[in-house]
Amino acid sequence: MILFISDLHLSFDKPKITRHFVHFLRTKARQASAVYILGDLFDAWVGDDDFTAPNAQIRRELKQLTDSGVAVYLQRGNRDFLIGERFARGTGVILLDDYAVIELEGEQTLLTHGDLLCSDDVAYQAFRAKSRSFQWQQNVLSKPLWLRLCAARWYRIRSFFHKQKKSDYIMDVNQTTVEMLMQQHECTRLIHGHTHRPAKHEFMLNGKKVARFVLPDWRNDGGAVLSFEDKNE
Ligand code: MN
């Protein structure tokens, strides 16, 4: 069994979602051969040196899962893109690049968080490009932890109001970008999160029927998991 989740947006003020996730790690995830977390596991990530709640607990639980023999892969989202090697070493998770290709049920499948698919949001893409540079990240990570935590809270509030101003159209994926990326990576399937618009979209690409799976975000009443059978089992 191969499991996919994304957009849990774990944070200190949403303890219910943390509980759902811990329960998932101790039960369903244990039965899987691999778990893929496709970004925004955390609502904010200010650096691998931050062990404030619920980070320390989540790290422990992830470590127990990987120690039990389950492979856990993690892509960084737009909220937790500062997750780094220290986090990976401490938890045993394997960090993936922004685009990863795996074979799933015999189909080449592209995995990505989803923010790169929203190419109509030009302002965001400009910020994204800037914030992925080594220099930008070094500059942020060199600030004291308390300052980064304050800044993260401020950005969360700001982002909430920004999102309300942006149109639905801009906040969704661009179909041309989706098709271009699937062709580039020679994939017939795409799995992503980020938009919080769960669906399975089927369409034709080069005369072939292809599919785009969109993962839901996790809520107080529970989390959704996309599951595939593992042919090797
Ligand atoms: Mn996201």
Short key terms for the protein model shown above:
alpha/beta; 233 residues; 8 helices; globular; Purple Acid Phosphatase, chain A, domain 2; 36% helix; binds manganese (II) ion
What can you see in these coordinates?
By secondary structure, the chain is of the alpha/beta class. The protein has one domain: Purple Acid Phosphatase, chain A, domain 2 (4-Layer Sandwich). The protein has helices spanning 15-26, 55-67, 85-91, 122-131, 134-141, 145-165, 168-171, 175-184, and strands spanning 2-5, 34-38, 71-75, 94-95, 100-104, 107-112, 189-192, 199-205, 208-214, 226-228. The strands form 2 sheets. A 5-stranded mixed beta sheet has the order 4-3-2-1-10, covered by helices on one side. Helix 1 runs parallel beside helix 2. The radius of gyration is 17 Å and the shape is globular. The protein binds manganese (II) ion (MN). The site of manganese (II) ion has 9 residues, from loops.
What is the share of helical residues? Answer: 25-40%
The secondary structure category is: alpha/beta
Q: What fold name goes in the CATH topology slot?
A: Purple Acid Phosphatase, chain A, domain 2
Secondary-structure element pattern, one letter each: EHEHEHEEEHHHHHEEEE
Give the termini separation: 8 Å
Give a quick account of the main beta sheet: strands, pairing sense, barrel closure: 5 strands, mixed
CATH superfamily: Metallo-dependent phosphatases
Task: Give me the Rg, rounded.
Answer: 17 Å
Count of DSSP-assigned helices: 8
Mean pLDDT: 95
Which percent band covers the strand fraction? 15-25%
Overall number of domains: 1
Q: What sort of overall outline do the alpha carbons produce when their principal axes are compared?
A: globular
In the sheet with the most strands, the strands line up as 4-3-2-1-10
Q: What bound compounds does this protein have?
A: manganese (II) ion
Spans where pLDDT lies below 50 across 5 or more residues: none
Number of distinct beta strands:
10
CATH architecture classification name: 4-Layer Sandwich
CATH class identity? Alpha Beta
